[in-house]
Write a structure and sequence with these properties.
It is a single chain. With 154 residues, the chain is an alpha/beta fold. It has four helices and three strands, in the order αβαββαα. It has a three-stranded parallel sheet, with helices on both faces. Strand 1, helix 2 and strand 2 form a beta-alpha-beta unit. The chain is globular.
Length: 154
């Protein structure tokens, strides 16, 4: 999805912190961290840790938190808007246009092709992204390349 960007991929929170600690003031600027994690606490902790490093490459680094929206058994949304500056939330699955729009918004880039008046389509997309969802039943998530047809699950 991010062809043309300089992307570094890590697998664990420990890897993120190790990578960030290896930075010095001579490293290039790190514009964004995209974190796919269901834990709001880990995202907030990462943001606090990042800003506490006070290293020039992180001066304006923004975090995009990818998450699956869910509700608690009481019907209240689990994820609220972050109170930590520089953290933007994005529901999964990320769509390329929405991700690029979020990157542009976080960097305060102008939108020459986008009307300043919100369209009905844009309002509907935002409403869907903010909708509360309750999940029922069993969920199987399979990733990777399939070697053949997937059998039906019962």
């Amino acid at each position: 999805m991010l062809a043309g960007f300089n992307v570094i991929s890590v697998s664990t929170m420990e890897d993120i912190h190790e990578h960030l600690r290896s930075y010095s003031n001579h490293n290039p600027v790190l514009d964004f961290i995209i974190l796919d994690d269901q834990s709001e606490t880990r995202v907030d902790d990462l943001a606090r840790s990042l800003h506490s490093l006070r290293t020039m490459p992180f001066k304006n680094t923004k975090i995009i938190h990818l998450y699956t929206p869910t509700t608690s058994s009481s019907g209240h949304a689990i994820f609220a808007n972050s109170t930590i500056p520089g953290v933007a939330k994005m529901t999964k699955p990320p769509r390329l246009a929405r991700l690029l729009q979020t990157l542009a918004d976080l960097n305060n880039l102008p939108h020459p092709l986008v009307s300043h008046q919100p369209s009905e389509v844009r309002k509907a997309i935002e409403d869907l992204a903010n909708a509360r969802r309750t999940l029922y039943g069993n969920v199987l998530i399979a990733e990777g390349k399939a070697s053949g047809p997937c059998p039906m699950l019962h």
